[in-house]
Amino acid sequence: MDRVMEELGGVGALVHRYDPEGTDDGLRTPEGAFLMCSFDLVSALVLAGRVEEAEDRFRRLCGSCGDLGLFAEEMSDEGVMLGNFPQAFTHLALIEAAVNLRDADHTEALHIWARHRDGRGPHIENERG
Q1: At a CB cut-off of 8 Å and minimum separation 6, what does 9 contact?
Q2: Which residues form the GH15-like domain (predicted)?
Q3: Where are the alpha helices (DSSP H) in 1-129?
Q4: Model pTM?
């Protein structure tokens, strides 16, 4: 996990699915951080016992949802949603991460995204410039 964060980590809690600068993927548009991978890392951290770190990443990711409370497939370092919107597998990974946090006795995790989605929660900075 540390190697993934070191080599594929983006701004804040974002994670790329591969090194966009070291890979010729043939795409004409820039590759953003892959949000499913970002939420999957949260789950991996929980399962490895790094729950506080996982919750911090989860909060930062939830704070970056769009105005409708939804996520796209990818996100640029500037916070722009890229790719398919909304993207189902991103939301499935979000739900899995929330359930894993809940199972680690962080019951608040199930409500974090909901508060951001409906505007009741505090805005969480995503460490963007």
Answers
A1: 15, 16
A2: 50-98
A3: 2-8, 35-47, 51-62, 88-103, 109-117
A4: 0.78
Judged against a pLDDT cut of 60, whether residue 120 lies above it is answered with: no
| 126 — pLDDT class (breaks 50, 70, 90) | very low
**In this structure, is residue 126 part of a structural domain?**
no
- Whether 127 maps to a domain, the answer reads no
Burial of 119 (0-12, 13-18, 19+ CB in 10 A): exposed
How many Å apart are CA 79 and CA 69, to the nearest integer? 14
Residue 43, domain extent = 2-20+31-117
- Look up residue 88 and give its two tokens: 């189902």
In the numeric block, which tokens belong to residue 17?
A: 């699915």
Span 59-80, average pLDDT: 86
Residue with tokens 């410039």: 129
pLDDT band at 7 (very low <50, low <70, confident <90, very high): confident
